Structure formats: structure tokens, C-alpha cells
Amino acid sequence: MSILSDRPVATRLPLTELGPNIGAEIDGIELAHLDDDGVLALREALVRHKVLFVRGQHLLDDAGQIELGRRLGEVTVGHPVHDSGDVAPEVYALDSQDNGFADVWHTDVTFVPRPPAISVLRAVVLPPTGGDTNWADSQAAYESLSPGLRAHIDTLTAVHDGSREFGYYLAQRRQGKGNLWEGEVFTQLTPVEHPVVRVHPESGRKGLFVNPGFTSHIVGVSEHESRGLLDILYAHLTKPEHVVRHRWQPGDVALWDNRSTSHYANRDYGDQHRVMHRITLRGDIPVGPGA
């Protein structure tokens, strides 16, 4: 069931759209002090605009970030594989001094049967310049494909595999024992299948649900056909008109809908330090157009 209401979200939040399809900035609110109506409006705005940027959230710490997540949905552990270290179990710390980079287009944790629905990212340490993050609109990308290609990919499924990115970490640094995820200890990165086109469970819109970070191949076609199709979809997804770019400032928080976006963090700041803290909200099993 959609949570979207008929009343425009913009009338309930001080929201500035950053583009016709993706991205909005919200000024003049404290995420730590939102009332229930404000939380609902934030969730509605997130489904509509796909990624939201909230400046000046200096009052928000890890505990406040987790509490905000709990008001928006069900908070997961920070990551199925990575050790949370000296932060709360719900927080995934991306630290550039510990290989905490995200410089490949991806959607968070699509290598599990039920990928996270929403992510909330808070800037903790920023380099003097660089380290911007980009988000791509998978729904606008899908809708701007030719009708024939849309009809074809509506029928396809793809394999998502986290072993390339996290296999060594799980085997060597965690000795094959990850975190408690979906009620079970995560011990192996078993590839999963998801539809190439995902129907958003709240808006009903279709969007591309493949990403270079975790999608290994399309099922039921040759290796060359799979590579060709995925290359076409990735190039189309990340066209400039489908992308919004955020230049981080201290106190910034970004919230995004993993069911309708992919993202990429620029690794252009050399040996300067960058630390971001992310939480994720439990999602549902992706459903394609033919389900």
C-alpha cells in the first residue's frame, strides 16, 4: 500500500527540489526533533524525490541517527559482513583510512534476498575538498528507455553477488562469521536473483534494479548478451540527466531510497580523511513487473 498522500509534501516540509526527477534539499528542520507528522512527511518526500539532503544537523550523533531510523522503519545491523568496530552495531562506518570507499556505482546490499529499503548517511569527517556523492534515478532511467527495450527487460532476472567486494573480508577478517542478518548469522555470500526491473512497493513505479557493484550477470542469456545488456543499462542509468550530485558540508545528512536509486562516492581527495556513518532500514523482497 502506498503511503503517499494527496497533499503535496512541499506544503509540509521546507523542501527545495534539485531537479525534475531526483533530489531535494530540506532546510530549517532538526531531524532529531521531528514530530510524528514530520517523520511521515519525510518518508513521503523520500519516496517522491528518492534522495533528500538535510543541512546543519549538528545535534545528530550515532544514537540520534539510529533513533531517526527507527521512526522511519526497522533498522538493520550496519552491514551483513563488516564488523561495526567501535561504533554501534546498527552503524556502518565508512572510513577512508580503513578502505571505506564506495567508488563504484551500486545500490546498498543487493546481494541478499531482502535488500535494505532506505539508507541514512551522516558526514562525520570530511576532506577539505572532494568526496562528493552522486545518486542515479533508476525510475527516470527506466522510463526513458525505448518501449521495446523496456518490454524485454521487464521479463529478465539478474544475479547479485557480494563475493567480489566482501568475500575476502568475510573469509579472512571475520573468519567466515558475519553479523546477525534477517535472524541468522551471515556466514557465506550466496548469490541471489532479483528482477532486472523492480516495481516500487509504495509508488508502484518501475525502475532498473541492476548495479555494477553487485550484479554479476543476467539469467538465461549468453555471457556476451548479458554483458552487452548490462553495459547499456549502466550507461543509461548514469547519464547526467538522471544524476544528482551532493557536495558535503559538516552536519549534512542524506537519506535515500535504495528501491529507486544507485549511488557512487567520488574518491578524489587523495590521502585526506573521510568518515561517513550509515544506517539502513529493512526492505522487502524485490518484485518485478510480471509478479
Automatic annotation (TrEMBL):
Membership in a protein family: Belongs to the TfdA dioxygenase family.
A molecular-function term among this protein's GO annotations: 2-oxoglutarate-dependent dioxygenase activity
Protein name, UniProt field: Taurine dioxygenase
Cofactor: Fe(2+)
Keywords (A to Z) from UniProt: Dioxygenase, Iron, Metal-binding, Oxidoreductase
Tree of life domain: Bacteria
The TauD/TfdA-like domain, residue ranges: 16-280
Annotated Gene Ontology cellular component terms: cytoplasm
PANTHER family (alphabetical): ALPHA-KETOGLUTARATE-DEPENDENT SULFATE ESTER DIOXYGENASE, ALPHA-KETOGLUTARATE-DEPENDENT SULFONATE DIOXYGENASE
